[in-house]
Design goal:
By secondary structure, this protein is α+β, with helices and mostly antiparallel strands. It has 20 helices and 25 strands. The longest helix is centred in the last third of the chain and has 24 residues.
Amino acid sequence: MSTQVSCVINEQPVSLDCQPGQTLLSVLHNVLGMTGTKIGCESGSCGACTVLLEDNPVCACLVLAAEMQGKRLTTIEGLGADAGLHPLQYALAEHQALSCGACGPGMLMAAAALFKQDPQPDSSAVAEALSGNLCACSRYPQIVSALSRAVTTSAEPGDCSRAALARVKGEAVCQAELRPRAALQGAILRSPFAHARILRLDLSRAIQMDGVEAVLSARDNPELCGHLLARGKVRYQGQPVAIVAAQDAETAKRALAAIDIEYALLPSVTSVRLAMEPEAPLLDETLFTQGIDPAPAQPSNIARRHTSRKGEPDRAFALAEVMLGDEIDCSPVLTGGFEPAVSIAPNKTGDDLTTCADDSSPPARLLAKQVLPLAQLLHLETGQPVSIKSHPASVFALTPANFASFRLGALNDGTLKVVEAVFCCQSGAVPAPLAAEICALAFVSYHLPNQNLIAYDVIANTPPQNRYLESAAMCALLVTETAMDALSRKLRIDPLALRLRNARQRDALTAASEHEHYRAPVAANNGRGVAYAMGCTHLCDVELDALSGRVRVSRYIVFVGASEMEASKDLDVFQQALAEAFRQIVNEAVMFDENGCLHDIDVMHYRMPAVLDLPAVEVVWLASSEYTEQAEPGASKQSTRGVDTAVAAAAIANAVANAVGGNLREFPINPAYIHKALKRAALRRR
């Protein structure tokens, strides 16, 4: 039974007919057509839908429409004076602070509440006001800086770009607002299990429902569906099993429920170490390890083995004056964004409807691209445009799990003589060519006359990787740079001095070692770390909270040689790399149950960097032309794109290790680990 609600929205009296349980966000979008308030996580965690209720910032997704009776509401559409811009809107537009249309309106409303109380807040007050708003593009420094400069009088748009103006007005179109005319609504039946055989799959009831235009599975449409839908068995939780196209979303949802499916659970494996065991459950009985001579006779979860050997490693270890060996274990982390994605298949003329004014965040665009092939299948079957809406919680995006062991041999003065390392990297349920990339990037930035590197590509019952080549850099360089720091501790040599002694390129290392901040004192429970790769040096300071175990990056400097023309572009790259590295290295690892399913599949329960976590990256551009992004033969351009994120992750890890006074062997670094490590460090100091 609907409820009549009278309220004031943007100074205008409004009468609403609200359904039971309907949220304010739903009313704004679906009843009033006010799409300036953006749809995000819909659980109150991201702040994208922030509005002012009686001048107080609230998340519209958490407010029931019935609660609006007699209340006064301000949305992004009512923030500006008449047809002009609010000073806060003008500030963000003038400084080009937003790179997409997803988070800006929510941040502007949160900032507006602050400016009503304090017309001239400092940057720390602005950052505190935005602490409940997430930015998937990690442009917090630009946003805080622009808002801190805002004046208290309304301003004209001036020379601001059309895109910048649309973003600050809430007029930028995001994925959740893409509603092509006459498009069918698609839906996906995903496996609730990580490993199971499909015993029965009956689509007949769904096909016969009124309003249903197509129902597809790999069994009934093998040529059309290819490997996009599960065939015979499912290999990871969330794997698509069947897809539906209907006249509306509700009919598509009912059609999914009408599909009769029965599974038989199979033993699953989610650990990279266990997946490599001979007795491990097999994901693919036709997979035989490549790169082994003679070829194996038995199938395995190891897709390939790659080796990179030079010099005489055994002899070099015998002559080494000091040796260091250790292991690094990286558990997967849930990544992705908070914004829903919409994948729209081409229409009959071949026009790609997904490009129509989409100003969503990068994670939403990536998710839409991932689901798009399924929408295209339904389009091919029906001949009509098809739209599929996906939420990040339904399409799990995990970082690769990897395990590595290494052994370094060096002279007492720190000169590297030999390295031996084994990398085991899990790419999900589908083989990915990581091994060769890892061997091409590991220790590539140092003079090493002798090495023996072995890497394995391993599959397990986890979702396939979408950006697996970029993940190769993380696997290779996190091990490389944490190993270099561990060696510097053992030899009691300054970590930059150790790298300078062995680096192929030294300008960025020299600049970092001579920078005034590198020699500045470090407070208790704080740490300073460095990492280096391909001529680029990262210097990171962290603060650790002894009570909560929370990690905050307090200062971050990158030393790199580049032309002035590249500077503005690369600054954003380094800021995004720091944010992504922080998310991967300072987080909670995902937990699997005994059947290989995720314990908690809400992406918002896994930490995304907020405004108070990260500083603005400082970049020191060097005049030297020594800077080159080159790896050993075998590394692709895509894998080297992940170098900045990997080096940032290593710099954070080394800073935390120095703060707790010991080598880190397990990642990601969670608060419980930090809390225990700080207690151990305090006991050692006694």
